[in-house]
Amino acid sequence: LVVGGGYIGLEAAAVAAKLGLEVVLVEMAERILGRVAACETADVIRAAHQEHGVDIREGVGLERLIGEEGVVTGARLTDGSELAVDFVIVGTGIRPDTRLAEEAGISCENGIAVDELGQTSAADVWAAGDCTSFPYKGGRLRLESVQNAIDQAQAVAANMLGAGTPYVPYPWFWSDQYDLKLQIAGLSEGYDDVVLRGDPSGGSFACFYLSDSILIAVDAINSPREVMHSKRLIAE
Of 19, 25, 70, 91, whose CB has the highest number of CB atoms within 10 Å? Predict the structure, then answer.
């Protein structure tokens, strides 16, 4: 059983299916990738999993696990059904661990709050990575991404040495599932239009997210060139 239909849960399901396991994935929202991708991208990912035998159940959550002597043997879902399971993978999101910062009196807001240079509310204390929230387009953003962790850490290290250069993120992500290589540039939150290029059923396409006719993000499956050009356009 895989609980959660985001990228972590779907990647875990793909690995398990390729190992020959029987996989059931439940997503309590109406569809997989509901917070991070358009329906067009989710449809392609869902079809790939179903072709590999993954039983995807959307709009269904986990009510409780059933076990004997500390070992999981089953799961009861919110639709009343019960499954016999050998193990469970839970990929339902994370909360930043800000306990140390809070105990030190450092301001936290969906993570350790830093300014555009990476400095916290405490003198001589800096932070970077998934645990931080930083100024972004008039608000604050906490970005869970390998690339952000690397780029922000380099920027904050330079600022600790006096560079004084604000950190500007260029979000991009990737997810490998079966023969699909999904690459994402930008953040699609707040989009009001979607434009497709290519054939989603043909295994190679791009989904462009627009806000007021401005490109803000792209999902590209087996289309690296689209991502390369889009990253430049989004940055501009």
Answer: 25
At what angle are helices 7-18 and 39-51 packed, to 10 degrees? 20
129-146 pLDDT tens trace: 999 999 998 899 999 888
Report the distance separating Cα 118 and Cα 126, nearest Å: 6
CB-count exposure of residue 124 (10 Å: 0-12, 13-18, 19+)? exposed
What's the pTM?
Answer: 0.85
Residue 31 to residue 46: CA distance in whole angstroms: 9
**Residue 137 is which amino acid?**
K
- Buried-exposed string 49-80: b where 16+ CB fall within 10 A, e elsewhere: beeeebebbbebebeeeeeeeeeeebbebeee
Structure tokens at 76: 């009861």
Residue type, 160: M
CB 3 within 8 A of CB 89: yes
